[in-house]
Amino acid sequence: MSKGKVYLVGAGPGDKELLTVKAVRLIQEADVIVYDRLVSESIMELIPEGCRLIDVGKNVGNHPVPQHEINQILLREGLAGGNVVRLKGGDPFVFGRGGEELELLSAHGVDFEVVPGITSSISVPAYAGIPVTHRDFCSSLHIITGHAKAGAELSIDFDALVRLHGTLIFMMSVSTVGRIAEGLMQAGMEPTMPCAVIENGTYAKQRKFISDLAHIAGTVADNQVKSPAVIAVGKVCSLSDRFDWFGSLPLKGKRILVTQPKSKASRLEGKLRALGAETRLYPCIRTDFIRPMEPPFADYDTCVFTSTEGVHSFFQWLSEQGKDVRAVADKRFACIGSATAAALRDYGLSADFVPTVFDGETLGKEMVSTGFVNGDSKVILLRARIGTADLTGALDAGGISYLDYPVYDTNYVDHEAIADLDCWDYVTFTSKSCVDGFVKTQRREDFTGVRALCIGKQTAAEAAKFGFDTVIAEKATIDSMIGVLTQFTE
Considering the domain 255-284+413-489 in this protein, what is its CATH number? Predict the structure, then answer.
């Protein structure tokens, strides 16, 4: 069997948007991923189904898989063939023991590549408003590990560090911060030297504490700071309050579950993360295009779409038949909302009708009341197999004949129940199906006290049945949902 290739990939400090383009590609192409504790959950969500995962995570003082065994795992997988990604928090060569892992691979002739990652020693201070270099404050940067074996002295030349007058970044140093501070002061550093400790850097749950050298150990203890954390020592720490862009984001510290289908959730999740929220993708439904199908669209003059999935299923099917938009050149199109109309524009077509309120009931009523459809119209609904009766009820009431033709199925996704559901600030629901799918995964019947951010009144009504405390977006759009959250934090 031919040998495979091992990629040592830096996963960065945690924020998945700090991954390199190459890292994302290799993660998605991997056959096997060997990953660490410091690889964030949001990055793990990028791993495609079918990829084999090997957990070699380490905690401080607890190494369930010793380093020599990790080395052997990489050798074994590399010799077995395929693409092997060793996914490591931060950068593989900055206190990541990447060099040790390559030694065994090199000795056995296994091909490898190294993909650098953004090291937390620089990025975490940046997310706390601390530039690690600034010509008005320092002329050098020094990265030091403060980790020491139990009972052993720290192997740090404090005198040399103090003479350099640079910014000092201490990694893996929460448990030894007192010894570090004492060593620097004994070497002549002023007790008033500004210091910072940043816990869970680049995550929404990031905490930052500014202190000075004389009090940094007490600050760490009083606030029960835990690993992973970065400790910065230097005059640049005094800039943190002025430059702390991350801490001032409007949704900083909020925890939000996103229940949309995985294929659609990136837009909502991305906007939430950009505003500082901690998010978790928890897709409760998936959409499967119905195939084979034969929608008799040629017999109808008006096509109605109630979701982006319906648009994509229909036009992809049209392409599969060797046809393009010229086949529907004589049709009129009604879309339930702006997102569905935008999906239609992807195929070079504009919606002829969009209701003032983006829901099925309003769509049906306004198509009738405005005269967009009448008794002579031939209407085909291209939507989910199980669609809301609000739309068809409105058309029935208006005396409109129609064909309700399914172009996709909505199926629930199985998950383990969320043990800490009450610790999340909001669960987002963009459809009634998302509500039902979410409820089916949880081991509880009453959701009183759990706040649900809903895209519309129909979705909110479904959530209210189960006791959720509902908040409704003014319009049935992602941007309106975001707007509701930011209003609450002002």
Answer: 3.40.50.10090
Q: Which of 285, 284, 328 is nearest to 305 (CA)?
A: 328
CATH class of domain segment(s) 288-411:
alpha beta
What is the spatial distance between Cα 55 and Cα 63, in angstroms, rounded to a whole number?
Answer: 12
Spans of all domains in the chain: 5-117, 122-243, 255-284+413-489, 288-411
pLDDT (tens digit per residue) in 149-196: 666 678 899 999 999 999 999 999 999 999 999 999 999 999 999 999
Q: In what order do the strands lie in the sheet with 255-258?
A: 278-281, 255-258, 426-429, 451-454, 469-472
Residue whose token pair is 């040790």: 100
- Ramachandran region of residue 231, left (φ > 0), alpha (ψ -120 to 50) or beta? beta
Rounded distance, CA 293 to CA 367, Å?
Answer: 27
Give the pTM: 0.81
Side by side, the strands of the sheet bearing 207-212 are 141-145, 167-171, 229-233, 194-199, 207-212
Enumerate the active-site residues. Answer: 36, 58, 172
- Whole-number Cα distances in Å, 483 to 232, 266, 477, 480: 36, 17, 10, 5
Under 8 Å CB-to-CB from 320, ≥6 apart: which residues? none
Coil, strand or helix at 465: helix
Cβ(108)–Cβ(6) under 8 Å? no
Handedness of CA 150, 151, 154, 155 (dihedral sign): negative
Q: Two tokens at 305?
A: 């779409």
Cis geometry, peptide bond prior to residue 292 (ω within 30 degrees of 0): yes
